[in-house]
Amino acid sequence: MQDERRLAVLRAIVEDYVSTQEPVGSKALVERHGLGVSPATVRNDMAALEEEGLITQPHTSAGRIPTDKGYRLFVDRLTTIKPMTTAERRAIATILDGAVDLDDVVQRSVRLLAQLTHQVAIVQYPSLSRSTVRHVELVLLTPTRLLVILILGSGRVEQRLVDLDVAVGDDDVAALRGRLAAAITGRTIPEAAIELAAAVPPPDVAGVHAAVADVLLEALSDHRSSERVAVGGAANLARFGDSFEVSVRPLLEALEEHVVLLKLLGEAQGGGMVTVRIGHEGPYQEFASTSVVSTGYGPGDAAIGNLGVVGPTRMDYPGTMAAVRAVARYVSRILDEA
Amino acid sequence: MQDERRLAVLRAIVEDYVSTQEPVGSKALVERHGLGVSPATVRNDMAALEEEGLITQPHTSAGRIPTDKGYRLFVDRLTTIKPMTTAERRAIATILDGAVDLDDVVQRSVRLLAQLTHQVAIVQYPSLSRSTVRHVELVLLTPTRLLVILILGSGRVEQRLVDLDVAVGDDDVAALRGRLAAAITGRTIPEAAIELAAAVPPPDVAGVHAAVADVLLEALSDHRSSERVAVGGAANLARFGDSFEVSVRPLLEALEEHVVLLKLLGEAQGGGMVTVRIGHEGPYQEFASTSVVSTGYGPGDAAIGNLGVVGPTRMDYPGTMAAVRAVARYVSRILDEA
DNA sequence: GCTTGGCACTCCGGGACGGCGAGTGCCAGC
DNA sequence: GCTGGCACTCGCCGTCCCGGAGTGCCAAGC
Questions:
Q1: Domain carrying residue A70
Q2: Cα separations in angstroms, B69 against B54, B65, B123, B189, B281
Q3: Domain-terminating residue out of B203, B221, B239
């Protein structure tokens, strides 16, 4: 009974604080929400909530603000992802349906997500290691320089330059192309790499074969070169009312470190689950006052990439989660069609 | 005589203000620079300089700061681009020589430039319209979907998806590939587009021919899709001691508007000239307190792209210009070799 | 046993005030 | 034309003070 009201108080505190960005006091609380009790009662509840570590006060005789733990409880038990309006759904569909290729899908998604959430959006390109090879093409630029072009099932096109030790001719390339295509088309990249390593090449083009296999292996294993991300909405960092140096700056720096961003997004999760990482729960202490809302996307339940937003812990979780989920769904649908 | 000293005073004011970021007074000026005259004399000179609109004071009884006009005079007549140290040159060479392909060159350049100047760096990819076609490749993804891959002399690889009205077979594609290659290899894209438009295709693949020609035309004419830029060093925006909202925010927003960035970089200029756009001289009023230092790069005197930095008007122009010029030279050299 | 009104207490924020220091403009003298 | 001197202007900063919002606690009431 009282427990229920306490949770209602917590919810009210979170909602008020998110919208006003100011510590919320007992009186304002009963006025803005119809709690049906007096401020004094709310104060007692607040004391209990503070005892449990769910809220805190910045300084004596100020209102309360939620702690990370408080947000966590709020997200887990006190709220549901609020569905998007049909107008919003339609807008998302319209914008994303206009995309002409994968690059375009990613660019539009990241912009859209930033606009919907008013936060910094991050979209990972479909992971190389989870995509199948749809087509492989070799282009001989010079006798010792080969361009390998991989076209993946997700629509992603990846190119790599290979410098060869020996000069090769067009015939060699044609032969290699045929053998490559037979070996790896339709397979995932990890499978393809194994296949290639196992294949015994004709001695005359062994060097080329090995070089190309190396490139594929590297494309798979080297996170820096194989996992790409797009970022958008950096201007929304201004919404951090917080101090520039402590909050905005590290984030601004991280936005150029794609490895960091990938780590922030976390591991892809299938099943349409939206992951919320609140403040200190994340892997970096510098981001103690930022939360990450992310989810996987991809055909069916198999996530082939992640997308999400990063913003202040003080954010509108239900709305943000809804936007992230909605965009991920539409992206999945589009990739499915392609 | 007095004129000379006045200019020396202006130079001293610019240098001091750039390094301290605070209005500089007459007394500090004679102390830090060996001007050989008394503060009172300097004050007279300052009054004259202010009369000419070269310096101004934020409020009565504060020191002076340079105006845009003052910076302009400083850049044009009071300073020379200070050459990089050999250590710096070596560092630039080492970093850029490690690049494996054009993307890598651009990424490294933008990072390098941001680090050298401690400002926001912008590097434009080699302009499509000024590059020659080295190779063209067609890949039939589905019977009605064709991937056109252009490899340009600059090393840039561009891909476009073409949706066809009619289904085509491998033979058609092979034929088209041959004709395309003959028609456009070695030509610039504008030339290639003209050539394609003029060519009379065999009637059976006329539709495909037209579609591909359209894509090439669009690649040339549509700035948004054909001109790409890379941005780096956004974290250096923190160096704007200025107010966040008025200076940093619009820039942060612009960094995602590549069209705006291209306009900021300006038209490519050959001949190794470094262009400096100071404050209000630029095309956007929002950037009244930012300057752009840019230059063209490319083999010989023919600029095929621009690069530069954008920062507060209060910046170290000689050093920044030197860094921009040095990076442009090395990028040009690398593109020349490739 | 909760809930409530009352009350004293704390502390932040903002405005007023004043001294300090940096810097200027002007003037008379060299 | 340069210089030293001098009065003046202001921004900056620390202090002080007050109002207001909010709290914690307690005693009374349902």
A1: 2-76
A2: 5, 11, 27, 41, 10
A3: B221
pLDDT tens-digit series, residues A57-67: 999 889 999 99
One domain for residues B162 and B32:
no
Q: What is the pLDDT of residues A114-170, one digit of tens each?
A: 999 999 999 999 988 888 888 888 888 888 888 888 888 888 988 888 888 888 888
Q: Which residue of A has its CA nearest to B134?
A: A141
Q: Is B290 helix (H, G, I), strand (E, B) or coil?
A: strand
Q: What does DSSP say about strands A145-152 and A157-163: parallel, antiparallel, or unpaired?
A: antiparallel
- CB of B62 within 7 Å of some strand D atom: yes
CB pairs under 8 A between A and B: 63
Q: Do A325 and A282 belong to one domain?
A: yes
At CB < 8 Å, which residues of chain A contact B? 100-101, 111, 134-135, 137, 139, 141, 147, 149, 151, 157, 159-161, 232-235, 237-238, 244-245, 248-249, 252-253, 255-256
* Domain CATH for A167: 3.30.390
In a domain, B81, yes or no: no
Residue A81 lies in a domain: no
- Predicted TM-score (pTM) of the model is 0.92
Same domain, B310 and B166: no
Coil vs helix vs strand at A232: strand
Q: What is the CATH number of the domain that holds A42?
A: 1.10.10.10
Q: Is the dihedral of CA A52, A55, A57, A61 positive or negative?
A: negative
Please check whether residues A247 and A327 belong to one and the same domain. yes
In a 3-state reduction of DSSP, which class is residue A241? coil
3-state secondary structure A121-175: EEEECCCHHHCEEEEEEEEEEECCEEEEEEEECCCCEEEEEEECCCCCCHHHHHH
Protein residues in reach of strand C (CB < 7 A): A 1-2, 5, 36-38, 40-41, 44, 59-62; B 23-28, 39-40, 43, 46-47, 50, 57, 60-64
Q: Which of A112, A147, A154, A158 to mutate to test the interface with B (most CBs of B within 10 A)?
A: A147
Q: Which residue of A has its CA nearest to B225?
A: A104
Q: How many domains does chain B have?
A: 3
A123/A137 same-domain check: no
Is A70 domain-assigned?
yes
What is the CA B71 to C1' D2 distance in angstroms? Answer: 28
Note whether A244 and A332 are same-domain residues: yes
In this structure, the answer to whether residues A233 and A331 fall within a common structural domain is yes
